[in-house]
Structure formats: structure tokens, C-alpha cells
Amino acid sequence: MKRILVLMAHSSPSQSQVNNRMSAAARQLPGVTFVDLYALYPRFKIDIDAEQQRLKEHDVIVFQFPFYWYSTPALLKEWQDLVLEFGFAYGPRGDALAGKSCLVAITTGGAESAYSIHGSNHFSIRTLLTPLEQTARLCQMRFLPPLVLFSAVTASSDGRTERHVQTYSRLLEALRDEQLDLPAAFRQRLLSETELPLLETGATSGTQRHG
Ligand SMILES: Cc1cc2nc3c(=O)[nH]c(=O)nc-3n(C[C@H](O)[C@H](O)[C@H](O)COP(=O)(O)O)c2cc1C
Predict the structure, then answer these.
(1) In this structure, what CATH number is given to the domain that contains residue 166?
(2) pLDDT tens-place string over residues 47-60
């Protein structure tokens, strides 16, 4: 079993429709450590030693957050700036994160069609997430295709939130149980409800769902 750490950052949880539900699902999964960064550090006073120790104790690091200004909420950026230190996460002998996996699980207000060269946001979500992807690479982590819920603000009214939360739970369980088909996953740009390649007993690849 892999040890999963979910670092969740949402600056206005009382207004959250989707991340709160994702958080509730992640919290109750065995083998998953869930950390609400804004609840833990309301004044942005991050305990660097505790955060580094927690990273060392896990195999898969999940960053869960609503997409804010094409980036992370401010506290998660502060967390990166302080916790991913030279000599710990990168640089000579800075290999504490080497070999771990990194998953970004985000929700966006914008529609999927807006996140393209011809859309109003002009760039794909993978392009906009390249700072996080390269951060993971510099730290010698394996950057998994991100899990994205587009148009999150309307997702609850059309039933997508429920399905997304189930997909998120399945993905965390699959990472914990090493049941994500990694070669198939890496052929995808993103992970989603319909494109979650899971290994099943007797199967080697393919897009499959648990019943
Ligand atoms: C400060 C702020 C900045 C935001 N920036 C973006 C953005 O750059 N792109 C986008 O698609 N949505 C943006 N949004 C919308 C949020 O991503 C969206 O409300 C959130 O993902 C919904 O998840 P929740 O229900 O858990 O809050 C922004 C929202 C806020 C409050």
C-alpha cells in the first residue's frame, strides 16, 4: 500500500460547492492523510519542519485546490516557497521527494472549451499547470496527469459534482492500492471520470471502472 497525502487549499471553504465534498470523501479513506492547509495555517505561519516530515512519510503527494488566477491559492504557493527547500527538495543531496508521485486535483470555474488555444483562456490547463509540473520534476517526483473538474460552479446543479467526487475517491484508492494503470494514464493529458485507467484483476490496461 502506498501512503497518500492530500494537501488541500481553499481560502473560502464556506463557499465551496465541490472541494468541500472532495475533501469529505478524501478524509474518510483509510490510508489517506488529509490536511486542510488554510485551517491549519490561517495566518500563513507554516511549520516547515512538520510539513517536510509529513512529506517524507508519504509516497503520493496530492495537491487539491480550486484554480485561482490560473494558479494555486496563495497559501499553497507560500507552502511551496517555504517547504520545498534547497537541500531538501532539490539541489545537491536535496532528494527527500525523489521517486514520489505528485497528483494535482483541481476545480475550475472556466469551461473545458475555454482552456484551449482558441478559447477565452488561450492556454490549455496542462500548459497553465506547467509551473507545478516542473516543480515536481525538479524535486524528482513523477507528475501524474491532473484530475480536473471544469465548470465547477455549475457542476452541483447538473450532477457532475457527485460523479467527480466518486472519481476522486476511486483515484485516491487506486493510487493507494497501486491500481492505477500508469502507462495508460501517462498517455492521457488529464484524468477524468471517463478516463480513469484502472488495473483490474486479470487486466493489464484499459479504461475501467469499479462497479
Ligand atoms: C480568487 C478567485 C480566482 C479564481 N480564478 C479562476 C481562474 O483563474 N480560472 C478559473 O477557471 N476559475 C477561477 N476561479 C473560480 C474557481 O476556480 C471556482 O469557483 C472553484 O473551482 C469552485 O470550486 P469550489 O466549489 O470548491 O469553491 C476563481 C475563483 C476565485 C474566488
Answers:
(1) 3.40.50.360
(2) 999 999 999 999 99
